[in-house]
Amino acid sequence: MRKAAIPVLAGLLGGAVAVAVAVLLGVGGTDHTTTTVIEQAALQDSPSTRSANAGERLTARDIYKRDAPGVVFVRAQVVAQSQSPFGFGQPQQGEATGSGFVIDSAGDILTNAHVVDGAVKITVQFDNDKTVDARVVGKDTDNDIALLRVEPDGIDLHPLRLGSAKSVQVGDPVLAIGNPYGLDRTLTTGVISALQRQIQAPNGFAIRDVLQTDAAINPGNSGGPLLDAAGRVIGINSQIATGGSGGGNVGIGFAVPIDTAEQVLPALKRGEPVKRAYLGISTRTIDGSLDGAGLPVRQGALIQTVERGSSADKAGLKAGAISAQLATGESVQLGGDIITQIDGRRIVTSDDVAAIVSSKKPGDRIKVTFLRGGRKMSAEITLGNRPSAQQSG
C-alpha cells in the first residue's frame, strides 16, 4: 500500500506541531526527511494577473498591500491536564498561535477551530500592532472553522473580500498570508495543485472538497486566507502534509473552501450549533482491488462499520465481519451490506454516500437500497444528528 502523507495542523502550540490522527485520503506519497528553512518572504514583483471582476492588473505586491491589513495574528491561551508520574493531573498552560482574517465591519474574524480549541483567553493582533481581546462566537468543528468577534470601536478594520472556490481550476495562481512560526503577515505564493481533496478534521470527520496548494503553508498559518489572483478569499488554510518527522512545509498544503464557511456563517454569527445529518456507518469503495473478494457487484459502497445506536444500526444495516488483507496491504472487512442506491441515485463510491447524507438535515428520511448476500434489499432510514466527534471502531 502506498504510504500517505500525514496531514499536520498548521497551528503552532508551544513551539511544537500537532499531528492529526488519521492519514490523508486521496494523496499518495513516500516518507522522506525534510529540512525547513524559516525566512520571511520577500515581496517581489510577480507577473501581473487580471481581475475577473474589474479587469484591473494586480501583482502579489498589490494584493499584499491591500489585503495584509485584514489578516490578524491569533493567540490563544490554553490549559490542558497533563498526567504526572504519580498519577496526579497537573494543569499546564500554553499558547497556541495562528492566523485569521476580518470578514466584516462588525469585528467578525474567521480562523480554524483547532487554533482556539480549549482556549481560556484569545487575543488578536492587527497590522498596526494593536492587540485586543476576542471571543469565540461559533464553531464548526466538523470543518475546522471558528468565528471570532472583537469590539470594533477604535479599530481600523480591513475586511477581506470573500470569493468562491467553485470556479477554481488546477494551475490558478494563489497567495497565502499568515503568521508562520510567529512571523506576522508573511506572504507566500503558488498555484492550486489539486481539487476535491479530503482531509480529516481534528474531531475525526472528513472535510470534503478541500483545495490543495503548493503555496508555502507552515505552523502558524492556520486560519489565514488563501487568496485568488484578484485578492478574493477562496479558502482557509488549515493543514499541511509532511513526509517525515518534521512539521514544515513540503509543498502540499490544504485549505477549506470559503464556500464551506459561508454555508455555516449565519448560524455561527447567531452562536447556534451547526447541525448535520448522520447515518452512522463507514464504507469502502468497491473498486478493482476487491476483484478477488467474490463480491456480487463491481461498484458500490461496502459497509465496514455500523455505529451502535445510530440510524443505520436501528434500520438493521450490517457491517462486514470477515477481516481480509488485500494485495496492497490494506485491511478490509468483507461480508457487510453493499449500498447501491440512496433515494434512487446510483452509488458508485463511498463519496457518493457522504455527499447525499451531507445534503440532508437531521430528521430527513432516505431510502437506502443495498445487497446482502447477493439479495437486493432496502430500508427507510431517518437520519440522526452528527455527534461532536467521530466514533472509533
Automatic annotation (TrEMBL):
GO molecular function terms listed in the Swiss-Prot or TrEMBL record: serine-type endopeptidase activity
Superkingdom of source: Bacteria
Record bears the keyword Zinc: no
Residue span, PDZ domain: 277-374
SUPFAM superfamilies, alphabetized: PDZ domain-like, Trypsin-like serine proteases
Claim: Transmembrane helix is one of the keywords in the record: no
Recorded coiled-coil stretches: none
InterPro entries for this protein: Chloro_Bact_Ser_Proteases, PDZ, PDZ_sf, Peptidase_S1_PA, Peptidase_S1_PA_chymotrypsin, Peptidase_S1C
Keywords linked to the UniProt accession: Hydrolase, Protease
GO BP term (any one): proteolysis
Pfam families in the cross-refs: PDZ_2, Trypsin_2
PANTHER family from the UniProt entry: PEPTIDASE S12, PROTEASE DO-LIKE 8, CHLOROPLASTIC
Protein family membership: Belongs to the peptidase S1C family.
Protein name according to UniProt: Serine protease HtrA
Name of the gene encoding the protein in the UniProt record: htrA
